[in-house]
Amino acid sequence: MFRNRSLNNDLALPQRIINYIFLTFVFVIMVIPMINVFVISTSTALDASQAGLKLWWTKFSLEGYEYVFRITKLGRPFLNSLFVSFTSTIIQVIISSLAGYILVQRELPFRKAITSFILLTMMIPGDLTLISIYQVNKQLHLLNSYTGLIINGLVSGFCILLMRNYFLSVPESLAESARIDGASELRIFSTIYLPLSVPGLATIFFLEFVGKWNSIMIPTTLVTDQSLFTLPLVLKSMIINKSSVSGAPPAPDNAVMAAIVIATIPLILIYVFAQRFLLSGMTLGASKE
Amino acid sequence: MTARKLWKQVKKYKLIYAMLFPIALYFIMFSYYPLILGIINSFRESKLIGTPRFVGFANYKEVLANPLYMNALENTIIVGVLTFIVQFVFGLLIALALNEIKSRFIKSTIQSVTYLPNLLSWAIVGGMWITILSPSGMVNALRQIILGEGTSPIVFMSEPKYARTIMVLTGAWKGAGYFAVLFIAAIVSINQSIYESARIDGASRLKQIVYITIPNLVSTMKVIVVLGSMSILRNFDQIFVMGNSLIYDKVRNLLYLIYNDGIVNFKVGLATAAATIVLIATFLLSTFVRKITRYDETYS
Lengths: 289, 300
Known about the structure:
By secondary structure, chain A is mostly helical. Chain A has 14 helices and no strands.
């Protein structure tokens, strides 16, 4: 491919300037709110409540973070979120890769029917069946339990089919020659298929972890016991409390923003780790199965 | 394959079927059964104790006659469609603009920064913007700088007239980066030789963007429209976090109302009837959008 872009294949100067202005505008719109949140979270409660742009510190202080751990007791919900998200994501990845591998076995009787059975579940929007899902969880005694938080959304048709698509792209001759050499199915799966599908595994891990870490609807529906609250539920009640009159004394702005920063950190960490695998996985998710 | 042979095959794979069994059980219990239970409940009265009676279409009539549901439908469509449009336009513009930048550092920085909010939950993004829009927040501080010291602060989150705009703009702020990533991936895969020959024919860069890049993005746009038409009806978290009793009339959407009726107020019959209507509407809408974008012809 001829990649050498010589000078005459650029935008004209005025257009280039407009382009830079637009991108600067986008950058500012995206970044300023984030800086604002970070500065408020590391200011004193008094400074945080004063009017102002708050893009730089009057006085740097970590009292917001201290408040959040000592008074709001954010430690427990943070660990709850971490535990629930990690456990269910890891189980999800194992189940999806096993099921995806099963679905590429050509000789398996009823393979098409099984695939359709899984594909159809993707057409059922989970948030519209929420009320029945609540009733099912109630019948199974899963309300207010870690098991309930982990098991809801544990298997996803989307992830299974994503893995199946990755496995389909593995050349069958590879598996065939391994089989002739006497390798067991499990060995073929773990030494040929899995290593060639690392981007798929990373994508599922990333998407599912983020989805679970951020999940609001299911935990709100299933959990009323405060000791089982996940981070989004605590964040929500902190935000609501600020604007309402009743209940516990509202947390100061710097504490709310500190909680927001704390809830964001794991997402940024996992994004940095998974980033190099993501583009292919995400675009795959947007194309039709 | 004869029945005997088939049976032999099935027996050979019995271990695999045993592995599939828990997965099938999961989907039956948490996907298919709730769907059917919801439809059954939509034909029954809302009753907490004892067996509820079947009441025919009474719940459906109640939903359609209920002004709250009509209001929620209006809010869902207005806020959803506007958010999608702003998100789509900005996603496309960001992708096109970034493609003209040569510095990889600037490219990846802006791409990461615009994509980041997409990862954050509405509990985070909502809390952030509620603070920024509060009387002591950044937006009011900016107004004072521009309009002078005496300007009295606006309590944005309790003004019905700003409510929809706020939901649309914060929704687009969160989501535009994802669309940009999809567009960028599509732009990268366009064959470079088309640009080369256009350049040799003397087409300016702007012309190349208009006549090569954008037409080559049409199929990606279709995918995004299909994805977007599905997500319009499914925006619960934003309203759950950012809504309040002063602005609900402008922003309360169908999912939020269904949740409120079904889970909070125990009106199971009413809520499941509404959910069933939305379910059917979603299905019809997706079929319709797929048809007009010729999605299936292009992608199967």
